[in-house]
Design brief:
Shape: globular
Mean pLDDT: 76
Radius of gyration: 30 Å
Distance between the termini: 53 Å
Number of strands: 73
Low-confidence stretches: 665-669, 671-897, 918-923
Helix content: under 10%
Largest sheet: 54 strands, antiparallel
Number of helices: 9
Length: 1013
């Protein structure tokens, strides 16, 4: 039983094998699990009674995963690497590996192949996309990313200081971004060369004793402006003052839920929560209280507003939004019904606008075999898209009432940058150019020239069209847009993290405030003598489709095409506007007199672009104007595209921050606030789903990760780590300093809901050395978590596989973020986390008190001091596990100085190396390594002597010998050899054989047992 700080209880039932079978949380939210005879999850049923079923291969790799009759099937090679992923519709993705086990190719169902290359140190050196365009990567002597060169020759260069911190970036545009660090390796100053008069030339950061960023000062055109943050005792943000001096104050409850926000005008928003920490009430000044309900599994069920209007959500058996009904007094304001194919692609949207001439609109969607949208059938228009191998739209044709209205041919350069768009039917001819850093620089459309300017951080600072007054933009240190100006008109923006909180005029008077539940935008207050209150109605992708007055009448309606271009809008004048879509730029009309558009992006009607926070989005061509700041994932080639929106599938994915697409068929699938500063070394970041409750399954092919509230500590789900990967979630309420990782865990021997104090951790691990893991919860994660490291009893080999999996799954993108280390773990005490990881067989570099603990890749080194010396190449497998690109969990292989006659004889007979151990771990040794075997002997030191122990299970199976057996099996697994156990002086007892067999089967290792008298 777990009781949180508010006295709410979660009760868990276990079977005889200490596996969680049922969990009951407050409000009767109950989840349950069943297991296979081998101990893997067979079924998982959530609190809404949706059951996911799993089957496994003989080696216990996940084979099938089925929800609502939709089955994803996986296949693996002999090393356990995934080779096939068959989607529920039968279409298959293929994964190939080179002779060293490194990911070599990814082939989609359309036979488009992405190819990867590596150097001898397993650094990824090239990506050849499906259009045969190659991006190359260079590394320094310490395997840190030193250069990246695009097709055409544009290149980035990275340099590092002695501690491995990124010291400078030379950009393709000829600018240098230089950073200095303090003694704890925290970024202090960043200087931008070649900064213009309206650009930041230097940024200076300050920290408190807990490494929270307390202030960021930017120098712009000779003036310095400062942003400050204050934190409470749990390191939660308590007060923020932005660069314009506007404040926001926060308060929290005992379990870390944010309960109050007070803006710079003193307006207070209050949030209430149920016993499952789900947002149930939002009270806004002048608007009253908006109520929300959720299903037992945490999906949004309804919203009831003070004006009496209501929004109700229904879900299909797979948990996808099936319908949304916006009503008042029984009358429909607007409603949506959705249908999906087996892969979860939306194939139909039925839209009903009550009380308007629009009536009912049915839109049908079609996809190619790679799940890319290629046809949209609207009531008034049919549009077809032709895509190339990497997702670039090469042709777009449209008909209305059977007549052609558009036929666009689109051209691209070697960097997938859109360079031309010619439409002979609509008489549109657009030519675009880019700078060397990949930013859209000029656009000439039908004789009208647009120019774009950028600062050293590749943020758009100005757009000018023809002889019109330039449109200029200003940003804060985090990269959020603070102001937009044109001529004498200036609008300033204030944020709650990354959500728009308020708009003000040039002198700081508030124009509008925006109000949110925990998951979405709900309302607006327009300032004035009599403030006007409006409520937002959203579709499944969080796009505003209608606004209601305080009395509940409709003041505006908007319809979008699949990519976000406005196709119809009804404003306060009552006129329905249907702009032409076949123009040089999107027409983001603003008759609704508010700034929020498609999926929550801020619309700039002056440019036809959406401000998507990290960059700008052009819905007319479904592309961003600048490169993606995220590296992408090798296993998912669509994520590697620098400009493509939502993997070319805008009905399933959306990109709330302009950084990374995530699945959007739940309202709360993607977090509203997740931000890291631009121009840091690109590293792989995967946002967690906004999952409610302490126990949630991780899904293999969706890169989902556990997100646990502080009230749920110790309640991780039972998951087989061979099938789930170690993936990160980045939170940077400061300046990107807090990086946290969570591992899907397979608890095999119980779980603890208590905290191991730092001073007791060494003794705890020593006593539980065979079963342990570490979960590090950073101080920014939740109120009750504080600075504790939570330890759970875990199988060591599962820990190693998860740590090793980082390198294979994310490759170069991790190395670009690190120095020698390839892992970062945010922990309040480096000593605590370091102790745990070191004892699990991982090298630690770093000192206590550092804001980020460095976990090093192991060193390739073999010391020859006795026996039959062999070259270090024979031991390469120990540094590169079964899938090259993995990094071995072994700290360092060395030959022992102790002469063991039995081991020497053992090695001689098999032409191997004797007395090998892991340096620093006396109990982690094995007696022989040959070309075929990793072996261990048990018995007398001298051949012929009687054994000094009985070979019975009880007397033989000491802790040391258990570890020796496991170490031998693990080494055999990593080096793809057989394990060999030799018992001198008699045959082992059945308990010993069973122990070897069980552990060998678990890691998939063949073994032999030899006996001699």
């Amino acid at each position: 039983m777990l009781r949180d700080a508010l006295g709410r209880e979660t009760r868990t039932v276990y079977d005889r094998a200490n596996r969680k079978t049922r969990e009951t949380r407050p409000l009767e939210a109950q989840s349950s699990w069943t297991y296979t005879p081998e101990g893997d999850i067979e079924t998982a049923t959530d609190a809404d009674a949706r059951t996911t079923s799993y089957t496994y291969t003989k080696r216990r790799y996940l084979e099938t995963q089925t929800l609502a009759g939709e089955t994803t099937t996986h296949a693996y090679n002999g090393s356990g690497q995934p080779t096939q992923r068959q989607r529920p519709n039968g279409k298959t993705w293929l994964f190939g590996y080179d002779d060293a086990g490194r990911l070599k190719t990814v082939e989609d169902p359309l036979d488009h192949v992405t190819t990867y290359g590596y150097d001898a140190a397993n650094n990824r050196t090239s990506i050849e996309d499906a259009n045969h365009r190659i991006t190359t990567f260079a590394y320094d002597a310490r395997n840190r990313l030193a250069g990246k060169t695009y097709p055409g020759g544009a290149a980035y260069v990275w340099k590092y200081d002695a501690d491995g911190n990124q010291m400078s970036i030379d950009t393709p545009n000829g600018r240098t971004i230089a950073t200095t660090y303090d003694a704890l390796n925290r970024a202090l100053t960043t200087t931008y060369s070649g900064a213009g008069p309206n650009e930041a030339s230097q940024t200076v950061r300050h920290y408190d004793g807990n490494a929270n960023v307390t202030s960021v000062a930017e120098t712009i055109g000779g003036d310095t402006r400062t942003e400050t943050r204050r934190y409470d005792a749990f390191d939660r943000v308590e007060r923020v003052v932005d660069a314009y001096g506007r404040s926001v104050d926060y308060r929290y409850d005992a379990v870390g839920n944010r309960t109050h926000l007070v803006d710079h005008d003193g307006a207070e928003t209050v949030w209430g929560y149920d016993d499952l920490n789900r947002n149930t009430a939002i009270t806004v000044p002048g608007q009253g209280t908006t109520a929300q309900t959720q299903t037992k599994a945490g999906k949004l069920a309804s919203i009831t507003r003070p004006d009496g209007s209501k929004s109700e959500y229904a879900y299909d058996d797979a948990g996808r939004i099936e319908s949304i009904a916006h009503t008042k007094a029984g009358e429909t304001i607007a409603s949506y019904a959705y249908r999906y194919d087996l892969n979860g692609n939306r194939i139909e949207q039925k839209e009903t606008n009550g009380g308007t001439t629009n009536g009912e609109a049915i839109t049908a969607y079609r996809y190619d075999d790679a799940d890319r949208l290629d046809r949209v059938t609207e009531p008034e228009r049919v549009t077809n898209y032709v895509l190339d191998a990497v997702g670039n739209r090469t042709r777009e044709t449209a008909t209305a009432n059977g007549q052609p209205v558009s036929d666009s041919i689109l051209g691209y350069n070697a960097r997938d940058q859109l360079t031309s768009r010619a439409d002979a039917v609509a008489n549109v001819n657009v030519v675009q150019t880019y700078d060397d850093s990949g930013n859209l620089k000029t656009q000439t459309g039908n004789g009208v020239l647009r120019t774009y300017d950028y600062d050293a951080r590749d943020r758009m600072t100005q757009m000018q069209e023809g002889a019109n007054a330039p449109l200029t933009f200003d940003y804060d240190a985090q990269g959020m847009r603070l102001a937009k100006s044109q001529g004498t008109q200036t609008t300033k923006y204030q944020y709650d993290q990354t959500s728009l909180l308020a708009e003000t005029n040039a002198i700081g008077n508030t124009l509008s405030r925006y109000h949110y539940s925990a998951t979405q935008l709900i309302g607006e207050t327009k300032a004035g003598t009599t403030p006007q209150q409006r409520h937002y109605l959203l579709d499944a992708l969080r796009s505003p489709i209608a606004l209601l007055t305080q009395q509940g009448t409709v003041s505006a309606r908007t319809r979008y095409d699949a990519w976000g271009e406005v196709i119809a809008q009804q404003g306060t004048s009552g006129v329905i506007v249907t702009p032409l879509r076949d123009q040089a730029n999107a027409n983001l009309v603003a008759m609704d007199e508010q700034p929020v558009g498609f999926t929550g992006y801020i619309k700039d009607s002056e440019s036809g672009l959406y401000y998507a926070k990290a960059r700008y989005y052009d819905p007319a061509v479904a592309r961003f104007t600048t490169e993606d700041p995220e590296a992408g994932k090798d296993m998912e080639p669509p994520s590697l595209h620098r400009y493509l929106y939502a993997y070319a599938n805008p009905t399933v994915y959306f990109d709330p921050l302009g950084r990374q697409a995530c699945r959007g068929h739940e309202v709360d699938d993607c977090p509203l606030s997740q931000w890291t500063p631009p121009n840091r070394p690109v590293q792989q970041r995967v946002a967690p789903d906004a999952l409610s409750g302490p126990s949630q399954l991780v899904e293999v092919d969706a890169d989902r990760v556990l997100a646990l509230p502080s009230s749920a500590l110790g309640q991780q789900q039972h998951l087989n780590t061979e099938n789930y990967r170690f993936v990160p979630y980045v939170d940077s309420s400061g300046d990107g300093e807090a990086v946290r990782y969570y591992t899907a865990q397979n608890q095999t021997n119980g779980e603890f809901d208590w905290v191991v104090p730092p001073e007791q951790i060494d003794s705890f691990i020593a006593n539980e050395s065979k079963m342990m893991n570490v979960a590090a919860y950073s101080r920014a994660f939740g109120g009750a978590s504080g600075r504790n490291i939570y330890i759970q009893r875990m199988q060591r080999d599962l820990i190693r596989k998860d740590l090793a999996g980082v390198a294979t799954n994310f490759g170069e993108s991790w190395r670009s973020a690190a120095t020698d280390p390839i892992y970062y773990l945010e922990a309040s005490s480096s000593v605590v986390a370091g102790s745990a990881l070191l004892r699990s067989g991982t090298v630690i570099e770093g000192a206590a008190g550092r804001s980020a603990l460095r976990v090093s890749a192991p060193t390739r080194q073999v010391k020859s001091s006795s026996g039959n010396p062999r070259s270090s190449n024979d031991f390469a497998g120990f540094a590169d596990s079964e899938a090259a690109g993995f990094h071995s969990p072994f700290r360092r292989l060395t030959l022992t100085n102790d002469i063991d006659p039995a081991a020497e004889d053992f090695a001689r007979r098999f032409n191997g190396q004797s007395s090998v151990k892991i340096e620093g771990f006396g109990d982690r040794e094995f007696d022989m390594v040959s070309d075929t075997y990793v072996g261990q002997t048990f018995g007398p030191k001298v051949v012929g002597e009687k054994p000094a122990f009985e070979l019975s299970g009880k007397n033989f199976m000491s802790q040391k010998r258990r570890l020796q057996i496991r170490a031998t099996l693990e080494a055999a697994h990593i080096t793809q050899r057989k394990a060999l156990f030799e018992f001198r002086g008699g045959a082992p007892a059945s308990e010993v054989k069973d122990f070897i067999r069980r552990n060998g089967e678990r890691v998939g290792v063949r073994f032999e047992i030899h006996t001699s008298e």
